[in-house]
């Protein structure tokens, strides 16, 4: 965390953590303003966490969420009002500090000349040149003008986006491709379960974005605000426009931590953790190691979620550790699942039930986590009964692993690309948009009925690459995605139930069953999860090497 001074009364910074508050207080800051919406990134602490820590250090905290590229006149006026009333100095922050700097610059548009505003921002390390016309125009939004144009534009540089870019370049190295993503770090999210079990170090699951992006792509480091499919345009933060011939949409999911009352305020403290966030997975392992007895709860929200087996993986690996260390008899392990089954593909349930019985786990189906009282160590669940009434149940806990509800990002849900439920509306076989023929989508953001896993993205990327190039007349035939997904269910340290299936839950083992029978726990499957899949991800999938992922071509 680096504080960048704009004026004597105003500074900005990138995302801060609760642990930064002592240093912020020591720097003399009296008020902080959060300009970043909650749940914007996988490694982002919520505002409530920051607010609670700020209160402990005598600092006021205000929440002024600004979507990337949507610094409205109203937001600027509210920022100006906060600045006029706040105890100073003030620190405003967002993901990188850019939105905070923009709020300051635009709110100052009627008070300072443009050159001075730009110079102050530049000295602090922020280029507000893209807002020059708006600042000069009294803060009003300028007319949109195309900034760039590319043959192929990919929104999102997660597993799906980078794999697709690499698959395209593997087929035609001359392609002009731009990838849009504001993140500086790329995460191997399937590894976070292993971090939470003390198997992987967190650093092994992260790399700098510029190290994993294909060299030939143009990286547009910005957030997407909106789409104009009729104009073949993507609108970026700062009102910039990027045009395309073909568009690939794969920004992933939004984790809705705020949907559970009290959760943002207690995440990462009071025994409340989640392997669904990079910075919290190590806390899971800490809690597991330190728990000597009491009650451990594991929750799973309504579908869809990314990697539906992840909530169970945390539960099994934690229980295995407690059993090996002789503590399990003193720990009451309970699973609260909003669904009605342990796993969606029935063939894998018997093997999982053996471990449920081994660890004496209590299964509670139909229960959705509604609220958490962290200091009080109490979780509240809701369940809809057969007669339609809603039952509320509270349980005390010593440790709780939470999985938040998940949905498509806001800019997707409100766009013309989304179906009624907010997911990108594509053909489940070709992954081409049902209405806009120049648009393809893959990964967690689509409405295809497959499991939302990295394994699914690995199979989808070559399909999109082939069909996109076919639409440009560069390839023949049509590639088909069969719904493949995979979930290596880590039932104990050293054994995995390797679930692989297609659309409709049809089992689809990649390797011969005499080698790995996915319906039974396997040592070899564990070695695959621990030793093979991480390098396969970093060195093959993200580099266009489609081992066992070549698409089926029809016609």
From TrEMBL:
NCBIfam families: TIGR01244 family sulfur transferase (TIGR01244)
The protein's name: Uncharacterized protein
Pfam families noted in UniProt: BLH_phosphatase, Pyr_redox_2
GO annotation (BP), single: sulfide oxidation, using sulfide:quinone oxidoreductase
InterPro entries in the cross-refs: BLH_phosphatase-like, FAD/NAD-bd_sf, FAD/NAD-binding_dom, Prot-tyrosine_phosphatase-like, Sulphide_quinone_reductase
Ranges of residues in domain Beta-lactamase hydrolase-like protein phosphatase-like: 3-110
FAD/NAD(P)-binding domain span: 150-461
Annotated keywords: FAD, Flavoprotein, Oxidoreductase, Quinone, Transit peptide
Superkingdom in the source lineage: Bacteria
Cofactor(s) in the UniProt record: FAD
Gene3D superfamilies linked: FAD/NAD(P)-binding domain (3.50.50.60), Protein tyrosine phosphatase superfamily (3.90.190.10)
Gene Ontology molecular function: any one: quinone binding
